[in-house]
From TrEMBL, chain B:
This is Molybdopterin-binding protein. It comes from Actinoplanes nipponensis. It comes from the Bacteria. Residues 49-193 form the Oxidoreductase molybdopterin-binding domain. InterPro entries: OxRdtase_Mopterin-bd_dom, OxRdtase_Mopterin-bd_sf.
Amino acid sequence: MARTAVPGRLSWRVATVEAARRETPSARTLVLRVPQWPGHLPGQHVDVRLTAPDGYSAQRSYSIASAWRDDGLVELTVQRVEDGEVSSYLIDDLEVGRPLELRGPVGGWFVWRAAPPPVLLVAGGSGVVPLMAMIRARGDVRGRQPFRLIYSVRTPQDALYAAELARRVRDDPGLDVHFVYTRKTPDGWPEPPGRLTVATLNTHGWPPDFAPDVFVCGPTAFVEAAADILVALGHDPGKVRTERFGGIS
Amino acid sequence: MSLSSFMIIGFTAGMSIISPGFGGRRRSSRPDLPPGQYLTHDFPVLSAGPTPRIPLERWQFTITDETGGKHSWSWPEFQDLPAEDVTTDIHCVTKWSKLGTTWRGVTLDTLFENVETTADYTMVHGYGGYTTNVPLEDLLDGKAWVAYQFDGEPLAPEHGGPARLVVPHLYFWKSAKWVNGIEMLQQDEPGFWEEAGYHMYGDPWREQRYQGD
């Protein structure tokens, strides 16, 4: 087994919040300028560390939302977690111009390396964040790999990056996006609200014969359900990469 | 914001900078939590792919020594081995810790009772192709179990059932889910996450999350 080349020690870096934008009522994107950032692959994450004046500190992992453009910028989209001490700080308290400690990039498995096969992205809620990095990276290099995103959200207002996705569906050849609404649909939507089903993945995914690279990210129950359906439909389990978060602070 | 105000705000305290305005309203640190961990009462799931479903009649656990000698147990044979109830804290590299979890399983000391080996390292294998490396001494002397019950119930597939390794003194990715074998190695080799940049040993108390930590 050959060792994958990985950088040496991941040291903590002090980034500066260069800009911030509200994505939804419960999510905020931080645009961070990170000194000596080595670059990252779409799908990788960073560890963020907050430290209080008395030395108490808290760490969390956040997926990187942006594709690397060699400009020193890294974007994180933070979804508010109920009672989350870190997410509430990053959304409510951290102002533009302020420092934020992070280290990374982390992860060498849940990444898209611009390989030739078609890609199926399956997102539940803020699980879309690392998948958006893949869509953006493909857009940056004008990738021709057929990409399909199936994106499950509670209501239309909960969709992250909705305007950008609509623009990219128009401008990025070979990108399709299908929304699944679990609580409330837009007006005139052809189906009642409901969870992702076998039919959704069968109709809006790729056939297993196309041997797509599949990335599934979201809450545990969502990822378990989606991955089980994909395997039942005949997808090779070895081509289905998953990333799960537990809905915890 | 000007550079000067950044400098004032960004003063250092030991190794880390202060996060302006962060008070840590919900302090989750306590002495039984390793550095950088927070407490959860859920049981989050971390897996790289779909959850494999392993029928018990096909389940097998095999220890392979460095000469290729094999020691195997079927599910009924494994169930016949003496089991222990274990209460322990677990620590995931993704930062959550769960305290006082209860497991039932077979200690590795029992499984290694008749295994002759001079090798110091192991690669633990799971159904679905997962691998992780653990030194042999970290598996013996009451430090590790192949567990098949969690909280008094059969271990659920998403948590590694029908049986998973439990090595609670290392980050939980070392506790291979869907475990089906241990291979003895003369030299340490990286497993699945270790190949992807995670630490070769993974001691949570020394915060060995990533390569070089």
